[in-house]
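Run log // design_07
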C-alpha cells in the first residue's frame, strides 16, 4: 500500500536522516578545509599541481553522479530505492578515506599518481553513498515546508559534523601521530570512517521512502536527461549551486592558508573554522523560520547579497584585527548556513515540477546532477586556488612573498564576493515562487490520492 506522502515528519526521523550528513561531513569537511594544505604541506606537492589535480579528478568524478543517479532511480529492493546504498557504501568509504591520506614512500611523480588515483577512488566512493542519500530527501515527504524542515535538520547535522572535523582534526592528527604527522592523518581518517559507518546505519534504520511516482513505468536514461534539460527551475539551480560552491570552496580551503601565512596564527585555525561551522549551523537551524517570512527565492537573494558585502569588507581588514576577522567570518557563515537547506529543498521542488509537467519523476537523477554541479564548482575553485597560489610564488612552510600573501587575501575576500554577486544575478531567473509551488503540490496531491485509493482496493 502506498504511504501518505504528505506525512508530518517526526523528530526521530528528521534526526536520523541528519545523521547521514554528519557522517558525510567527516569526509567532505576534511576535503574542504584540510585536503589542499595536506597535499602541499604534508604530501609535498606543488600548489599548481594540486590545483590541476583537484580540477581533473573532480571533473572525472562529477560525471559519475548522473550515472549513480540513474542506477539508484532504477534500484528496487524491499528497503526502497535509496536507503540500501547507505549500507552498501560504508566499506568503500572507510578504505578510500584512509588511502587518500596515506603518503607513499616514492618519487614525486609516484606521489602525484598516488594522489590522483586515491582521490578519484575517494570521490567515487563518496558519490556511491551520497547521491542516494541526497535523493532520499525527495521521497521521504512531498510537503514543501516539511522538506525545508528536513533539510534544516540535515544541514544542522552537516555543520555539526563539520564543526567536529574543524576543531578536533588538528588535535587528533597531533595526538595520534605524535612526531609522525603522516600516521596521524591515517589514523584520524580511520576513526572518522568508523564513526560515519555507525551514523549511516542509524540513518538507514530511521527513515522511510513514502513518495512514489504517479507514473511507475521505467523510462530510458536518455529520457531522464532530456527531462532535466527541459526543466528550467533545475537548470537555474544547477548554475546557482556551481557558483555558490565556488564561493564556499574558495573561502573554506583558503582559510587555513589565511590564518597560517597572512595572520601568522596557525594555532587559531581550529577555533576560526569552528566558529564558522557554528554560524553555518545556526543559519541552517533558523531556515524554517526565515521561509515563513520570505519565500526560498527571495531569501536566497537577500542572503547572497549580504555575502557579497561581508566578503568584500574582509579584504580591508588588517591582519592584526582578530576580532573583526572572526566577526566577519561568523556573519558570512550565518548567511551561507541557510543556503544548503534552501537549495536542496528547492531541488526536491524541481522534482515535483518535473513530475507535474512531464508525468515522470527521476528523483535521484535530479539530485545527482545537483551533486555534479557542486563538485564541478568545487573543482573549478580548487583549480583557481592552486593556479593563483602557484603563479604568485606560494612556497609551503615558508614565509610568503607579498604577491603570495595578496593571493591568499583575495581568495578569502574579493574572489568569493565576485562569485556571490554572480549567484545573485542567477537567482533572479528561478521561476518557482511560493504560489506556483502550492498550485503544483495541489495537483500532485490529488493524483497521489487517486493512486492511494487504487492501491487500497
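design_07 sequence
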Amino acid at each position: 500500500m502506498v504511504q501518505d506522502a504528505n506525512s508530518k515528519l517526526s523528530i526521530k526521523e528528521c534526526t536520523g536522516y541528519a545523521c547521514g550528513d554528519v557522517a558525510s561531513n567527516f569526509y567532505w569537511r576534511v576535503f574542504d578545509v584540510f585536503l589542499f594544505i595536506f597535499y602541499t604541506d604534508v604530501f609535498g606537492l606543488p600548489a599548481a599541481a594540486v590545483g590541476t589535480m583537484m580540477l581533473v579528478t573532480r571533473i572525472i568524478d562529477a560525471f559519475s553522479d548522473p550515472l549513480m543517479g540513474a542506477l539508484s532511480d532504477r534500484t528496487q529492493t524491499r528497503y526502497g530505492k535509496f536507503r540500501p546504498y547507505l549500507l552498501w557504501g560504508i566499506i568503500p568509504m572507510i578504505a578510500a578515506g584512509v588511502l587518500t591520506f596515506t603518503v607513499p614512500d616514492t618519487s614525486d611523480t609516484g606521489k602525484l599518481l598516488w594522489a590522483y588515483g586515491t582521490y578519484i577512488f575517494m570521490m567515487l566512493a563518496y558519490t556511491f553513498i551520497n547521491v542516494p542519500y541526497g535523493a532520499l530527501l525527495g521521497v521521504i515527504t512531498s510537503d514543501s515546508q516539511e522538506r525545508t524542515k528536513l533539510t534544516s535538520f540535515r544541514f544542522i547535522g552537516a555543520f555539526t559534523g563539520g564543526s567536529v572535523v574543524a576543531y578536533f582534526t588538528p588535535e587528533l592528527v597531533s595526538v595520534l601521530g605524535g612526531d609522525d604527522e603522516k600516521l596521524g592523518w591515517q589514523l584520524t581518517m580511520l576513526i572518522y570512517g568508523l564513526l560515519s559507518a555507525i551514523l549511516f546505519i542509524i540513518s538507514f534504520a530511521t527513515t522511510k521512502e513514502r513518495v512514489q511516482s504517479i507514473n511507475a513505468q521505467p523510462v530510458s536514461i536518455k529520457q531522464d536527461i532530456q527531462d532535466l534539460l527541459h526543466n528550467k527551475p533545475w537548470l537555474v539551480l544547477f548554475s546557482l549551486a556551481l557558483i555558490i560552491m565556488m564561493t564556499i570552496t574558495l573561502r573554506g580551503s583558503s582559510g587555513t592558508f589565511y590564518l597560517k601565512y597572512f595572520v601568522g596564527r596557525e594555532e587559531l585555525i581550529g577555533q576560526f573554522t569552528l566558529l564558522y561551522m557554528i554560524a553555518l549551523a545556526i543559519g541552517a537551524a533558523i531556515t524554517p523560520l526565515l521561509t515563513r517570512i520570505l519565500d526560498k527565492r527571495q531569501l536566497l537573494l537577500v542572503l547572497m547579497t549580504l555575502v557579497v558585502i561581508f566578503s568584500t569588507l574582509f579584504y580591508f581588514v588588517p591582519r592584526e584585527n582578530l576580532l573583526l576577522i572572526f566577526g566577519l567570518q561568523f556573519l558570512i557563515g550565518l548567511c551561507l548556513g541557510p543556503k544548503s537547506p534552501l537549495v536542496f529543498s528547492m531541488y526536491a521542488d524541481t522534482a515535483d515540477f518535473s513530475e507535474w509537467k512531464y508525468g515522470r519523476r527521476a528523483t535521484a537523477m535530479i539530485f545527482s546532477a545537483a551533486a555534479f554541479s557542486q563538485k564541478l564548482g568545487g573543482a573549478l575553485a580548487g583549480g583557481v586556488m592552486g593556479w593563483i597560489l602557484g603563479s604568485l610564488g606560494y612556497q609551503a612552510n615558508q614565509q610568503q612573498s607579498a604577491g603570495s600573501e595578496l593571493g591568499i587575501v583575495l581568495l578569502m575576500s574579493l574572489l568569493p564576493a565576485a562569485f556571490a554577486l554572480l549567484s545573485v544575478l542567477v537567482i533572479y531567473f528561478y521561476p518557482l515562487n511560493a504560489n506556483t509551488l502550492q498550485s503544483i503540490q495541489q495537483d500532485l496531491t490529488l493524483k497521489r490520492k487517486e493512486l492511494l485509493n487504487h492501491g487500497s482496493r
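Residues 144-177 form the longest helix (34 residues).
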